[in-house]
User: Fold this.
Amino acid sequence: MTLAALDEPIAAGTTFLAPDQKSEAILKLLTCGSVDDGKSTLIGRLLWDAAGVTDDQRAAILHDSHNRAVNGERIDFSLLLDGLVAEREQGITIDIAWRYFETARRRFVIIDSPGHEQYTRNMATGASHADLAILLVDARHGVKRQTRRHAAICNLVGIKKVILAVNKMDQIDWSESRYRAIEADFQALAGNFDFAEITTIPVAALTGANVVARSAEMAWHTGPTLLEYLEAVDPKVEAEDAPFRMPVQLVLRAAGDFRGYAGSVTSGAINVGDRVVDARSGLGATLQRIATMDGDRLTATKGDAVTLVLDTDLDISRGAVLSEIKRRPVNADVIEARLVWLSEKSFDPEAGYLLRTATDLTPVTSMSVSALVDFETLASAPAHDCAVNDIADCRILLGRATALDLFRDLPLTGNFVLVSAIDGATVAGGVITWAQTGAAAIGDNVLVLDRARLAGLCGDLGDSPADLAEFERRAQEVAILLRSAGVPVLIETDQ
Amino acid sequence: MTALTSHLKLLEAESIHIFREAAAQFRNPVLLYSIGKDSTVLLHLARKAFWPAKPPFPLLHVDTTWKFHDMIAFRDRTVKELGLDLIVHTNHDGLARGMNPFDHPPSVYTDVMKTQALRQALDTGGFDAAFGGARRDEEASRAKERVFSFRAAGHTWDPRLQRPEMWQLLNGRLGKGETVRAFPLSNWTEADVWRYIMLEKLEVVPLYFAAERPVVERGGQLLLVDDERMRLEPGEVPQRRRVRFRTLGCYPLTAAIESDATDLDAVVQETLSARVSERAGRLIDHDQAGAMEMKKREGYF
Assistant:
């Protein structure tokens, strides 16, 4: 069977029950809010009512609900989500949980993230995978500090569509005026962000009102129920004619002199016969084949995992970004970025860090924090430190240039994680807001690692592509060591 | 293009991306091949990820010696047909101590013959990463898994110390003594696996299809009498029933279900309308509360 055959409609008469959606095949949905807002209950209710719960799970939930007096004799829907023993014991959500369900219209992935401020990093992690976010607020309390924080994180990681679910409407006697006031508060707050679409829905997760079934008590709500909206929304926001990018994951070699660049297209499209360029070297080639196990293809578009064969050998390796000729990435060695700090170890200007972009891993020469986002005012305040759960603006000098885009233009080649050079931990996740080439001017105190300086360590290496790659690897390792000893380093790989 | 196929294409592309990231970032990966439907899909995706080259890693099967006979035959045929390297590992120390699923509680047996055996095999091979077919929809603690799941020295998993994963970026840089379990099927569901097997016309172990088989009913579960090692309790007489398996493990610990689904089409239909979750047929998961989480903490994949 070929991939092309995956395109063929399923023959009538088969029993292939499948969601019948028109737009995006999978909707990835983030839910955020604290345990007090009834977030787990809302998702549990959605799963329960939209038939995403199997009979044995149903029986287990009914059984467990009696063992926990949280909701008296009511069904405790949150038990559907809190999977870890520690979470069940404490009645809170610590880590992200992934849930999958389908309705007749669409396939859903629910990314359930913890609400507590101490787990902001987990929320940011979950949010980065979502197309759309449900921000939950308690109708009795309205928009709070944590709502602002959640909105700021959703905005940071690139979510463009949000739903404000005003929960516990039953607790305020289904009051439309109270609901409208919260809606207005949120609209004002959202003005700070780049959201493309904001929808508010009044719900009562415990009773199910406006989750799947329309609420008789809130006849004044003429908009969609939560499920109606989720089944209809188109999560796509990007332009049709986005520039082509494919970060190279691997160079594949096989019998018959086969040499191809394997990777996933992160934006745009490419056709056989098109010119492509390696942004780092500026070298161009013509696309000869798009090879897959299911046969060659004529075109590859965003999301496709393919192997590209070029007419001339560009001598590129993992970390290169193949691009169209006209609109190229920046080959940058200095960037400004906004990031969320994920590690319990605070930012340390003396520590060794590596920048992991789409497929590249680049040593950081130096890094400085310039500002922190205040969750109360959402304004940036000057700062030099940053610790776990902080959102910070920073400037990063790289040990060598790498191909990048701005996150707001092309998210998948404009995002990164910061990695500890010592233990490999992912310490921060960020988005590139500015990038430039050559701006990391070589100052008096920057040590340049080039072939001459590393002659003793790299005397065994020649000029073959493999040797140049090995030189770069060794130079990076040396840079990491020097950096961790406080020496600013720049790697010079040009032969 | 139908809606369904586009959703499977997205999942396929994501899995290929994960395979390639792992192959690029880890020094010595291995694919945990357990012969079941998830392994079948996993192996197929691995072939696609590196085509026209072969997957740049061997397969590893942890053989408890209590796998169904049909499974072993299927394994050997698959490996031969595709020309792949297969490592079979058994915990011989456990065997020597007489470990078996009848005399020992499922949790003890599984720990020795599966979890410990897996750790032995990974240590022996010096593997820094192992691909597994686990899916987040299988069970509550798996719903919290990362795609690259880091294990400390000794292969232990601490759900509170999981490495954050943001966007499509997978960070495989290892700390001292760390290894990784990589899960390319993280976002697949049981129904997706079957739909994909059907669309890609993949061959699976015949035990997934209904047939007349000798079974005994015990504690509400149907257990297959796969060979003479099956111990019958007083009064138990094997009867022929029309059964199949939703999930395949060690034979006395994996229950069959009554079914008339004799082909893929019927299996998909049955799966999509199922009202009982898949791992309900795995007796080891019911041993104690949070059973899977405990097994994972100890190094079960």
User: Anything to note?
Assistant: Residues 1-23, 69-73 of chain A have pLDDT under 50 and may be disordered. The domain at 330-491 of chain A is CATH 2.40.30.10 (Elongation Factor Tu (Ef-tu); domain 3). Chain A is about 20% helix and 30% strand. The first strand of chain A starts at residue 26 and ends at 32.
